[in-house]
Amino acid sequence: MRQKSFPTSKQLPPLRFDRAKLKIYAYSLLTGLASGAVVVGYRNIIGWIEHLRAARLSSQSLSPPILLFWLGACIVAGWTVSLLVRRSPLIKGSGIPQVKAFLQQRLTFDWKRELPYKFLGGVLALGAGLSLGREGPSIQLGALAGSAVDQKLGKGELRHFLATAGAAAGISAAFNAPLAGVLFCVEELHRNISPVLLTSALIASFTANAVMWAATGNAVIFSLGIDRTLPLGHYFTCVLGIGIATGLLGSLFNVGLLGFQKAYTKVVPREGARIIFAFVVAAVVSLVAAPVTGGGGELVGLIAQGNSAWNTIALLLAGKLVFTLFSYASGAPGGIFLPMLSLGALIGALIHRILPGFFDVQPYLINFILLGMTGFFVAVVRAPITGAVLITEMAGSFAHFPAFIFVSIIATTVAELLGTRPIYDSLLAQLLPKNPVEPPKNA
Predict the structure, then answer these.
(1) Of the candidates 66, 151, 50, which has an alpha carbon nearest to the alpha carbon of residue 108?
(2) pTM
(3) Do the domain assignments include residue 2?
């Protein structure tokens, strides 16, 4: 029997390097470094201010001068943010609709102005206690960093690749979730993606994650220890119930967010006045209902301790929901990513408090919290794979991935049946008529 001969090294075709792809990948690496540095700085400064605010305002010896100083500081911060928004309208809100429009070549970025304005505006808004998140702005900051790398090195020819890479890096550095950063670009920003674009997003995402690790260590937003896996029998009772509940409430959130924006604009027509008033309200809420301020990371940690009664959780859920809708309606720079997860956690915890009379779920509080996060996020954003992977990375174990996928499917199905649009599609539709920018001719 004749043996097959294999080609020798001399017979193999020469390796060919695609210079264009290598350039994209190299610039994606630089984008990951730049985005990681910007987002880690953004995250750390906000965290420091939030810690300082909580420490000062939780003191039992708050004197009238301190209270007046706090109120005055919030008014000045609100006025400053209103000026930033007036000069650069694209820094408003989360920034995700702006990134989607940029990638669709329906508006342009001015990174030299928008990056520092978004950074400062977000720091002031979250520092004052508005119920907004830093993760949506981190996506826009990452995309702006990618745009900067493109304009400086890519001569404006790689904006599609590097803005996408920067957006993925933004999520990665904000959440310590590099896979979710890439998947968000696939599911939400593009809906379809080329291998080169996917690779550039992967490179930037994992590079930014490395920057985050180097700067802060394995820092997590929610420090939740989960060591129990839900029994399979609970999938068609508890997990199904959480999926239905989060699907319903996520759809309500989408409708409420758009409705709040319209109502607030009608009551307070001037944009600057809306922002300043929101900062004044945040100053008061920080004093009387501190747990519902900010993104909600500390609130989730409080609920995860398992000491809260169902009526306390319900009250916190209502307060966090209303304050989040109001804060976002103001137009201040800040997102809804983290508040969404906090609301989902509260829904999961509330269901956990109600069910012990019917099912043996007492040991699974953290599971319910994470399932609530997944379902609510997916119902609002309509990105089921991203939601499941994001919470899996935050949980630190793929043992719970099947439950997260199951609740994602249920929540998505319920939201689709109710006919509500994904929130970022609705916000994109609002954005574009206000910013009719012609796409570049060489796009």
Answers:
(1) 151
(2) 0.90
(3) no
